[in-house]
Design goal:
The protein has 91 residues and is mainly α. The protein has four helices and no strands. It starts with a helix and ends in a 12-residue tail after the last helix.
Length: 91
């Protein structure tokens, strides 16, 4: 019911019109907005910084691009299938 009031829908089908009337009369436009505390903003900024740092470190460690040929060679080395490996260079 609150969603229908917030979206200003033309009509609502309900089995409890009295409840809808109460909800509509108690509805406040500003009630849908939630205040965010400084602590929550701080946590949001902190986690964004942490993710950026670890993402950068991960990319330094494992590379910025995916080398599919290198991955295939490493997998085949582990399996002992190196005698048939043909390494293709990108054109």
């Amino acid at each position: 019911m609150k969603w229908a009031i917030a979206k200003e829908v033309g009509g609502v089908v309900t089995d409890d019109p009295e409840k809808f009337r109460r909800v509509a009369l108690e509805w406040d436009e500003g009630a849908t907005k939630r205040d965010v505390s400084a602590r929550e903003w701080g946590r949001l900024v902190w986690w964004n910084i942490v993710v950026m740092i670890f993402s950068f470190l991960f990319r330094i460690r494992y590379g910025f691009k995916i080398d599919i040929n290198g991955i295939e060679v490493k997998v085949k080395k582990r399996r002992g299938e190196m005698e048939d490996v043909v390494i293709k260079t990108p054109a």
